[in-house]
Write the structure tokens for this entry.
Amino acid sequence: MHIINPATETIIATIAPDNQHSLSTKYNLLRAAQPQWAARSVADRVAVVRRFRELLGSHQEELAATLTAEVGKPLSQSGNELNGAAARIQWLADNAEKFLADEQMTAAPGLQEIISYEPLGVVCNISAWNYPYLVGVNVFIPALLAGNAVMYKPSEHATLTGQHIAQLLKEAGVPDDIFQLALGAKETGELLLDMDFDGYFFTGSYRTGKHIYERVAHKMAPCQLELGGKDPVYVTDDVPDVKAVAAATADGAFYNNGQSCCAVERIYVHEKIYDDYVNEFVKEVNSWKAGDPTVAGTYIGPLTRREQLHELEKQVADALAQGAVIQAGGKALPGPGYYFAPTVLTNVTHSMRLMQEESFGPVIGIMKVSDDEEALKLMQDTVYGLTAGVYSSSQERAAAVLRKINAGTGYWNCCDRVSAAVPWSGRKHSGFGATLSHQGIRAFTKSKAWHLRTL
Ligand code: NAD
């Protein structure tokens, strides 16, 4: 399997993917070792995870360079991702003992009722490439903290990063047989679906997630899916600083080249400030430096996958054919490298693919609305349900819209952000289950109810 640098289109490594035999061997090692890992105290596992966090920091330069080389994100954003992962690990490590401890629910004379949290066992984590540290950490860190063994399949586009993660977990003190890598693409994933895991935790596209859910249903094991989105933002007419909101929402749409599950994918702007907003938005987009992701100051690097260039071209062509107007960009840039000019389209409607399908690239549609009711109606018009945001001086006004939207996250005066303290979860085609927060720690456990009576 060739690992290709998306900025240069050169092969930077060649690795042998796993096969049925190697995966079975790894699975057996995980299965045999898991009980000893579970028998260790949570405090002990927390200490190991804290060492892993420190190692991410001391190796940051090398890890960021690898991440940029294989997924193409600007070097500064690779550094940000590693810092973000460290912050999440910190929260999970600080809170694991609290949320994995037994909970006494009833203490009456002669009766105690207690909930305990047991590890699931050996879990399978099939992961995405867009934020391999962040989406990986969401799963394998709480899984390990809770006493599980983990088969981790990094995306084929983040293989080298997956290898770094495995190496550093080992250095941190995670026993060899408790964390195993499954290397490869779809074929490797399919082999994992045939195996007998105690839980499947998937991050990736709706299409693959649906397939996985159907394939593992008969196992009656927990299956959690963190999938894509078509996340809307509404900018009301009462924002005090249109320029600042335009810059913040442009960043929400284009950070990591728009390849974020919670990227802003649709923007609705109140007609009273629409022209001003579009003007400021386009100025912001035109101010960015695009090109070599290793050069300081680059904000837009290459896309990670060549195929996505064609998807974006198709979305733009479809929008233009239906009357959209290009305010910036509009096409792929000459190679080498999978570059697409940051693209802003106005005059868009919901009959366009651009406003319905996840773009997962540096393309955005901006639509004028006449009031909150129209904005809400358009925001709700999606099969996805990951996040939604409203910019307004009034929290009440924003909440009135956000409460009615069927999404896992609501943002007031912010967007495209994740915090370890609150659950990260999708609805509808954005998936189900949650990572992060106390829910995301307990997602890797099965609860046992204890009814204890004295005789
Ligand atoms: P993808 O679905 O193409 O691949 C994800 C993983 O599934 C990869 O490891 C891939 O090798 C594996 N896979 C592919 N086919 C498989 C099969 N048939 N059986 C088993 N495994 C299979 O997704 P991607 O391109 O890696 O990621 C982009 C998508 O992920 C976007 O839709 C994005 O929104 C979503 N995402 C969601 C979140 C979230 O937290 N909700 C986070 C990051 C990315």
Q: What stands out?
A: The mean pLDDT is 98. The pocket of nicotinamide-adenine-dinucleotide is lined by residues 126-130, 135, 153, 155-156, 185-186, 189-190, 193, 203-205, 208, 211-212, 226-229, 261, 358, 360, 386, 424, 426 (CB under 6 Å). The first strand starts at residue 2 and ends at 4.
